[in-house]
């Protein structure tokens, strides 16, 4: 499975570091929504869904967490721990997030507004839909 990690330019000097995010530049879509997860309790695993039509860029701006990604055929585990690195997650990718560090702040940029009807929250349904998608391609 191809994982798209975007290296974000870090502007650093003796004062510290700065990363700028600009849509259609280092963010490969128009940003319509930004949200962030923080204060995730120890041992919690969240996500457990895929999106029908949503592209997101995920950045661990502080701390770290692990991602389990599943495209319906392959699975991969990934550590996000670098504020200058963005994980691009496109449509039809099952995701679970776990092993959040106590200080983890996970920022997500999305190309659409929040829409509960875009979520596939059953893994069985996700597998069925991804099989149909690959047979029509
Ligand atoms: C994703 C992963 C990385 C809103 O009202 N607006 C929003 O934009 C979002 C994202 C969530 N919510 C509400 C819906 C739920 O009542 O916030 C609550 C928690 O959302 P959810 O259970 O979907 O959170 P996660 O951590 O399972 O998943 C989130 C995103 O929903 C999802 O798109 O890719 O983070």
UniProtKB/TrEMBL annotation:
Pfam families, A to Z: FdtA (PF05523)
Record domain Sugar 3,4-ketoisomerase QdtA cupin: where: 1-127
Fetch the SUPFAM superfamilies from UniProt. Answer: RmlC-like cupins
Q: Which CDD domains match?
A: cupin_QdtA-like
User: In its UniProt entry, what is this protein called?
Assistant: WxcM-like domain-containing protein
Q: What is the lineage of its organism?
A: Bacteria, Pseudomonadati, Pseudomonadota, Betaproteobacteria, Neisseriales
């Amino acid at each position: 499975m191809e994982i798209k990690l975007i290296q974000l330019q870090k502007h650093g000097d003796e004062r510290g570091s700065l990363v700028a995010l600009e849509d259609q530049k280092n963010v490969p879509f128009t940003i319509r929504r930004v949200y962030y997860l923080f204060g995730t309790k120890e041992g919690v695993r969240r996500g457990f869904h895929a999106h029908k039509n949503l592209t997101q860029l995920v950045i661990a701006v502080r701390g770290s967490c692990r991602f389990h990604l599943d495209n319906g055929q392959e699975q991969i585990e990934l550590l996000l721990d670098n504020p200058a690195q963005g994980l691009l997650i496109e449509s039809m990718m099952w995701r679970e997030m776990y092993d959040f560090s106590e200080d983890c702040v996970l920022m997500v940029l999305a190309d659409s507004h929040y829409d509960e009807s875009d979520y596939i929250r059953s893994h069985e349904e996700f597998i069925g839909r991804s099989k149909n998608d690959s047979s029509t391609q």
